[in-house]
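During the reporting period the student researcher (J.K.) took over the structure-prediction task from the postdoctoral fellow and processed the backlog of single-chain submissions. One of the processed entries is reproduced below for the supervisory committee.
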Amino acid sequence: MDVAELVHTRTHHPEAIAEAALRRARRPLLNENGRLMIVAADHPARGALGVGDRKLAMANRADLLERLCLALSRPGVDGVLATADILDDLLLLGALDHKVVMGSMNRGGLQGASFELDDRFTGHRPEDIQRLGFDAGKLLLRIDYDDPGSLTTLESTARAIDAMAAHRLPVFVEPFISRRGPDGRVRNDLSAEAVTKSIAIASGLGGSSAYTWLKVPVTDNPDDMAQVMETSTLPAVLLGGDIGDSPEEQVAAYEKWRGALQLPTVRGLVVGRSLLYPADGDVAAAVDTAVGLL
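J.K. obtained the following structure tokens:
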């Protein structure tokens, strides 16, 4: 990874990013198998740099880019979800040809901030995604019934869904019911009831659901997923989340995903940290295992 070359291009030829986007070879959102395997790397822009006990695991940009390029090179990986800074680097590196590219849209809910649940849209706009020839957008929707900031996020999410539908661009909505603990930290409720409610709320946002996908977690009890996913007919992908820092926790996550991937509305996986920073350090093996679940 030649960071100096990336910086030189950004300094002397910033237009190279738009040029790379224009000539990027595109593909349909879904291939013939109708499934999606997306690697996620939009965490840093929200200040969420940790993986398990490693608080700054994602802070080294060259290391992250190397891991992303390796993951994108593996058979069966369809594409990447990231913010503009990372996607711009990947464009300059030529790593996005024939890949699905998802722009991350709202990163204003910084991890640990008092305004974390007022998650404003500070990333890709729908017009950016269209202009750059990207394939979809993704947004995070955390709802805390005790935090007025969630209402701002709900309203802005609905308008973003409307704008994406107007551009005929898919938007992946990642909903949670969230609460602050006694320590002030926001935690997502993965009980069957909470995930069911979050899916119902997200599915009804905006003036059209024609281009809306869901990005959902596996519930605390994986056996609840079949009933939970009956809440909506929208297509869905599973998210990975921070599954822990041990090989045993990684294997347990694979088994959770395996069962949920059999459900009729679930079309694939969008996983980031657990594949890019696996406990044993073997990115290729972690990605190949996840692809094998599809």
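The committee noted the following: The chain has eleven helices and nine strands.
J.K. will present the remaining backlog at the next meeting.
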